[in-house]
């Protein structure tokens, strides 16, 4: 589309208005650049916290302390921001589409499902996709939430006869002042203190979830790389900048000791490091120096 044609399309919105250029300037001026900067800054901070928490959780599984996390790779931060952005986009698209489908008609059972349960269902699908091991727990929680949602009106509106009428009264309450996604979004737009609460909550909850994902990722890890130096085997656990985090490794027992080292990643033709790939299907065994052994 040419710039002239684009101009005509925009101008058509202000047909009959002599101050067209002033209107355009006003629209540009009304755009809140500060909010955009805050969103970018917030996304960067959140991406860093998520990347840091994931790596911390991953290393926690092996018993590695925070001192080994010297820096967070910018690629990991970008990946974290991308994952968060993609997840939010999925939540928005999934909820809007499902909500639109369920909005047809006035069946109180469907309306309660849409207003109360649909947000939990969409978030549950997302968490299950991110970590399949959580599917059983998430399914159980969703089932409990669903049953609770349909039982609450019975106890809440004892004076109203008929279960359908109770649901209609609950829908009326939800529309006016209930805890629904619509009312939450309205509060975010209108109430500054609630906006601050959402920011603090996401900066607390999402890194905690990321930490748990990192721990579970390490727990499910089966493919590793190790090398031999002076007849001793060392397993490469992770990479920290230009260094490897390694631990003594017993190849026969698939066992590492919690004696971690950081070595520089370097090799040459005269004294090359030969890296060997190993698949440990039953999981890596970790020997704890004080409390014995764990899987």
What does this structure look like?
This protein is α+β, with helices and mostly antiparallel strands and 295 residues long. The protein has two domains: 33-218, no CATH class; 222-294, no CATH class. The chain is built from nine helices and eight strands. Strands 1, 2, 3, 4, 5, 6, 7 and 8 form an eight-stranded mixed β-sheet that branches. A hairpin with a 3-residue loop joins strand 7 (285-288) and strand 8. Helix 3 (33-62) packs across helix 4 (74-102), helix 3 (33-62) runs parallel beside helix 9 and helix 6 (135-156) packs across helix 7 (163-177). Keywords: Membrane, Transmembrane, Transmembrane helix. The chain crosses the membrane at residues 33-54, 74-95, 116-131, 137-155, 194-215.
**Low-pLDDT runs:** 1-11, 13-18, 24-29
The percent of residues in helical segments reads: 55-70%
What shape does the CA trace take? elongated
Which H/E pattern describes the elements? HHHHHHHHHEEEEEEEE
Q: How many helices does DSSP assign?
A: 9
- Structural class of the helices, strands and pairings? alpha+beta
| Mean pLDDT across residues | 79
Keywords: Membrane, Transmembrane, Transmembrane helix
Summarize the structure.
With about 300 residues, this protein is an alpha+beta fold. The protein contains nine helices and eight strands. The chain has two domains: about 35-220, no CATH class; about 220-295, no CATH class.
């Amino acid at each position: 589309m040419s710039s002239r044609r684009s101009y005509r399309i925009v101008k058509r919105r202000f047909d009959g208005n002599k101050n067209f250029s002033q209107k355009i300037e006003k629209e540009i001026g009304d755009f809140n650049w500060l909010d955009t900067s805050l969103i970018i800054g917030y996304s960067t901070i959140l991406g860093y916290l998520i990347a840091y928490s994931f790596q911390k959780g991953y290393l926690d599984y092996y018993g590695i302390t925070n001192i080994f996390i010297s820096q967070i790779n910018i690629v990991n931060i970008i990946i974290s921001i991308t994952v968060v952005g993609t997840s939010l986009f999925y939540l928005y698209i999934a909820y809007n589409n499902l909500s639109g489908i369920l909005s047809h008609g006035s069946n109180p059972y469907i309306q309660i499902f849409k207003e109360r349960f649909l947000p939990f269902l969409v978030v549950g699908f997302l968490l299950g996709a991110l970590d399949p091991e959580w599917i059983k727990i998430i399914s159980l929680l969703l089932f409990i939430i669903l049953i609770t949602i349909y039982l609450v009106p019975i106890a809440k509106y004892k004076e109203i006869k008929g279960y359908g009428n109770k649901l209609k009264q609950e829908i009326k309450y939800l529309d006016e002042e209930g805890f629904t996604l619509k009312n939450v979004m309205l509060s975010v737009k209108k109430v500054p203190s609630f906006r601050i609460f959402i920011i603090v909550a996401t900066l607390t909850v999402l890194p905690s979830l990321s930490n748990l994902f990192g721990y579970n990722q390490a727990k499910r890890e089966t493919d590793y790389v190790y090398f031999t130096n002076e007849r001793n085997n060392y397993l490469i656990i992770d990479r920290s900048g230009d260094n490897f985090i390694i631990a003594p490794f017993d190849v026969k027992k698939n066992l590492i000791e919690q004696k971690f080292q950081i070595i520089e990643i370097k090799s040459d033709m005269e004294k090359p490091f030969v890296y060997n790939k190993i698949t440990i299907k039953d999981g890596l065994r970790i020997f704890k120096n004080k409390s014995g052994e764990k899987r």
